[in-house]
Amino acid sequence: MPLTQQSLTELILDAKKKAYEEIGQVDAPQPPKQVDWPVTCEVKPGLEGAVAAGTEVGFVDGVRGALVYRGYDIFDLCAHSTFEEVSYLLINGQLPTQAELEKFTGELRSRMAILQPTRQMFDVLPVKALHPMKMLEAAMIGAHAEDATDGNGGEIEWDDAAWRVIAQMMTATGMVARMRAGQPLVEPDPELSHAANLLYTMTGERPDEIATRLMDIALILHADHGMNASTFTSMVVTSTLSDLYFAMSGGLGSLKGPLHGGANEAVLYDLQEIGSADNVEPWFEEARRNKRKIMGMGHRVYKAYDPRARVLKPLAEAYSRDNAKVSGLLETAEKLEKVALEAMGREKKIFPNVDFYSGLLYKAMGIETAMFTPIFAVSRVSGWVARCQEYRENNRIFRPRGIYTGKIDLQYKPIGER
Ligand code: COA
């Protein structure tokens, strides 16, 4: 049966029902109403267990495998909302009225035209050689340059900058995709949604409503996720009273790594390396022997199935089944999940995360693998803005300690005596 908007919504609501049947039995602590400082917590390597800030932006319930943005369940937002509305929600704290949403969307659309400074930088940078995330970093400089020419004299007005970085992350992603493909740039169309514009500016073709809706859902799903590495990085930059553009560059750098946002690309490369469903078991055994991580699996917080993967899996399956662009990859992914869950699921509580199925969906849309992490950034930028904005309201510079375990009593020797 052909996919429709209605059938996509039903797939999400089915996934929600299944999730709640499974997790409804699990008792998990309710989030506290406020944080009373100082907080007593046990901190492990990688700051595991450390509390960095109180927040009302979002809640990751790692015990049950649930995710909430500003009080709203991620399944409901995916089923009924849009990326623009979710961005407003994250940044402003409540769902917008029609007039508020139109104003917010208008602010984004009025800032998404291709910027001259970005274009000029892209023209001199080796676009095909650099990772696209590096180009997005340059785009944040381009966005700031444009801001400075608006008569602000380098002084940044927060809302203006926030709308600009959200808009430009999408525009720049489209630019990079086109330049990597050796194709002419495509200006975003202010009549299209953010998700549709992302696809349009990357591919040069106006997407159909199913691809648009799927991309919108993917953007909703990736927009915020607790004190993840890139969000924390952007907050650390903000906490020094540096500017929002630098905070976004910090977030991009952190997101790029394969242990974080870069995992969506790594999954695709692994699936291609495995080659076919028949080869999953020997590949998996070899990976385990070599202590190689299975990309798109495991999570610092979730010790249950990641709700974002619960949404993406049925969507990716429905969209990529019989799709020649991902021929064999879906079956390989499904088999890999099954084998990995048997080996590591119950015993080590390692389950698929959001990155396991997202790449498959993007690949089925004809998107180049290197562009997967930038798509993540197009979405997560809203979470970064929301969290940085919240933190700066009661700002205190982040400054944890290291525990010095080196020597302290060495005598300095001139270089000729060493
Ligand atoms: N495949 C195989 N084993 C994994 C694993 C994976 N994807 N993720 C974690 N583990 C194992 C580790 O080998 C370790 O085993 P050990 O206790 O026997 O040494 C244990 O689980 C804890 O792993 P660790 O890396 O310390 O967990 P973490 O909380 O520091 O890391 C991730 C979390 C997400 C970085 C980690 O699960 C990972 O690297 N996943 C793959 C990358 C990925 O998908 N990232 C996207 C996250 S949304």
How would you characterize this protein structure?
With 418 residues, the chain is mainly α. The protein folds into 3 domains: 91 residues, no CATH class; 177 residues, Citrate Synthase, domain 1 (Orthogonal Bundle), CATH 1.10.580; 102 residues, Cytochrome P450-Terp, domain 2 (Cytochrome p450-Terp, domain 2), CATH 1.10.230.10. It has 17 helices and 3 strands. A 3-stranded antiparallel beta sheet has the order 1-2-3. Strand 2 and strand 3 form a beta hairpin. Helix 1 runs antiparallel to helix 2 and helix 11 packs across helix 17. The longest helix is centred in the middle third of the chain and has 23 residues. It is globular. The model has no long low-confidence stretch (mean pLDDT 95). Coenzyme A (COA) binds next to helix 16.
* H/E element sequence: HEEEHHHHHHHHHHHHHHHH
Bound molecules: coenzyme A
Q: pLDDT under 50 segments (min length 5)?
A: none
Structural class: mainly alpha
Shape: globular
Number of domains: 3
Q: What is the strand arrangement across the widest sheet?
A: 1-2-3
What is the tally of beta strands? 3
User: CATH homologous superfamily name of the largest domain?
Assistant: Citrate Synthase, domain 1
CATH architecture of the largest domain: Orthogonal Bundle
Radius of gyration over alpha carbons? 22 Å
Let me know the average pLDDT.
Answer: 95
Task: Give the biggest beta sheet.
Answer: 3 strands, antiparallel
The top-level CATH class of the largest domain is: Mainly Alpha
Report the β-strand fraction as a percent range.
Answer: under 5%
**What is the count of helical runs?**
17
